[in-house]
What does this fold into?
Amino acid sequence: MTAPLWRRRAVLLSGLGLAAASLSSQVRLSWQRQADSTASTTSSTQQGLASQAGPGTSPSSATGPLRLGWSPWADAEVMSLIAQRVIQQAYNLPVERVMADIGIQYASVARGDLDLMLMAWLPLTHKDYWTRVRDRVLDFGSMYSGRLGWVVPDYVDAAEVRSITDLRNPEVAARFQNTVQGIDPGSGLNQASERALLDYNLTDMRLVASSSAAMTAVLDKAIRERRWVMVTSWTPHWMFARYKLRFLEDPQLVFGGVEWIHALGRQGLDRDHSDLAAFLSRFQIPDRELSDLLLMANERSAAEAVEDYLDRHPARIRYWTTGMIG
It folds into this structure.
């Protein structure tokens, strides 16, 4: 019998941050229980998940909650909070959010130490991770789309700079102070940006590595002063809901194209919790709604934004949990 579509669905395209972790080694996932503002527990890296479950023991055979991996990215936070809230209320299954490096999440889902993760950027960003675990995890399909690249405010004249190739013009590069404002030094986005400088032969440009917060601060200040500025960024991100921005064209596809963010689960999760598996296969949010949700999370808190979103979309929650439309 052919496996259900959601068990093997993998889409081809590009993506976000690679983290330094070896999937061939014995990776230990740590966690620490914390209460979040939704009165549910979260976790962070401090003790090995494998040691918590015991050798060869999957969470499905233990008495503890489902373990949901997440990364400290804005979209990962709100998606994991939504999933946690819906699963607990609709299926009466306790869920513990486990913050961990993205590479550790792939390894832990493949081993069964995590039940699920919601941040698989496929196919290029996390291609190395996916290739190593694809036969040992369930793919429940994409939840929303994403994109990576270099971003400028919409008031930057598109007649002068529409594509990354236009930055070869020294006068154009000078308008940006010969600078691309980056994020974390080890991120996949910064690594791709370094490749772009080489592949496009941008000898007059330099990449400034910093952090996501610094990147948005630089962008905000430049926009308020109506200056030309260029930053490394991605969608979904709250800044696209706050400002009028556009990606520079990338004819060499250094950053890939449209990316799809998938939910992955450990093998056997569909047998242990068939209703949960069906929910994950239907768990999708329109990109524009997610951008607005991220903006509210940035201005208030992720927990408040998630509560507001769920209150305003009962029909969508009903579809996620039952398959009923309308």
